[in-house]
Amino acid sequence: MGIPNTPDLKQMLEDESFSDLETERNMIREEARNNIQEFDMARTKTDRKVGSHSSEQMQAALDLIEKGKSIREAAKLKKLSFTTLYRYYKKIKNNPEQANIRLVPNYEINKVFTDAQEQTLIAYLKESAYLFYGLSNIDCRKLAYETALINKIKVPESWTKNQMTGIDWLKGFRARHRDVSLRIPESCSLARATGFNKFNVDLYFNNLERVLIRHPQFSNGTRIFNLDETATTTVQKPLKILAPKGIRCISKVTSGERGTLSTTCAITCASGIALPPVIVFPRKNFKNHMLHGTPPGTLGLATPSGWMNSELFPEVMRHFIQHSCSSKENPSLLLLGNHESHLSIEYLELAKTNGVTMLTLPPHSSHKTQPLDVGLFKPFKSIYNACMDSWMMRHPGQPVTIYDVGALVGEAYQKSMTPTSITNAFKKTGIQ
User: Fold this and answer.
1) Prediction pTM value
2) Do both 280 and 351 map to the same domain?
3) Can you tell me the distance from the alpha carbon of 121 to that of 98, in angstroms, rounded to the nearest whole number?
């Protein structure tokens, strides 16, 4: 018996049908390899879906089945899950003698805490946030676990292993209590947290009331002023930009690494007027060209550090007296902080001679009692930063210097110190 003729291996590889078969096999291998890689990767845990049907809806679907409809048809008509309806149908069919069978899921059976205990946890979380000692997600989970231990509540094994509740419990807890949300807190120093108290604030408003009684002309707000300083640097914080996805690092050019600091002193009136600012430049001697682009009447000063000090503040007081037209016949009230640069015998004599009554704010409370800090400096700095960012776009390859700060401050000052913003800031602090 002879051996049948078999095609040569080279001829098989060149055969078109064999090539198609090999291509298909390679595709199957590639797909299987991808499936194995996806299986090995850590799976993202999805939120568990819970039932949302009512007992009336389920009962209506069961009635349709009794009338001859199939389970799938009844589920489609009543917009229910086929498997859910099938499970309840089997439950009733296998227990014909049992009455009042529950037709909705009983999630309460796995609930760890009672409503009263959860309300106690919520009250504690709120009170901690009010006292500036708010709890994070991890702290909340640990607190709930300790609460369960103290009350001898049965908890899952994973809670005991991790010494805290699971992330699923926290998601459900937050979903049940919508009045609590995850927030990013602002940093507050211990001095501010303890300095802003009822005694200091009451003392400040009592002094303000005595001043208004002594000078009734202050009550309409046209002679009440607020003065404060803020830092303006030559380096901007880049704004958000549109960029392609998938790139981990997106950069934008800034003027420098740290920049040079100047001080801008703003003066506003409760009637909605902003007096010309004072800018302190980081130079030994002041030059007039540094004020290029500033609002008319701006006072320019210079110190090596760029900060305000007690030697320069008398010049600021003369600037205020000139533009506020203060005198003994036309007195004014000036609200300012307790910074050491505001302590000078010369400026106190100037204020007394020109009818300026000064009322200092409570220590470490300017974030609540000073109009400039409450409602004006934040928009001013945001606009100043945007102006500097725009300047960098218009002058590619050039850094911002202190000689450009005046124009940037002038543009931001006029856009932020609007009458509406000023009057609202005074109202927010309880002065008007």
Assistant:
1) 0.67
2) yes
3) 39
Quick one: the chain helix, strand, coil %, rounded to 5? 50, 10, 40
What the block records as the tokens of 360 is: 């200092």
Whole-angstrom Cα distance, residue 233 to residue 280?
12
Q: Give the chain's domain count.
A: 3
409 and 296 in a single domain? The answer is yes
- Cα→Cα distances 102→59, 84, 107, 109, 210, Å: 10, 13, 12, 13, 71
- Same domain membership, residue 420 and residue 301: yes
Q: Return the amino acid letter for 162.
A: N
For residue 267, what are the β-bridge partners? 227, 275
- For residue 290, tell me if it sits in a domain: yes
pLDDT in tens, 93-117: 888 777 777 777 766 667 889 889 9
The C-alpha atoms of residue 409 and residue 383 are separated, in whole angstroms, by 9
- The residue range of the domain holding 124 is 110-176
For the chain, which residues score pLDDT lower than 70? 1-51, 106-109
β-sheet bridge partners, residue 286: none
The three-class DSSP label of residue 373 is helix
Judge if 365 and 414 occupy the same domain: yes
Q: For residues 287 and 378, what is the distance between their CA atoms, to the nearest angstrom?
A: 29
Residue 135 shares a structural domain with residue 99: no
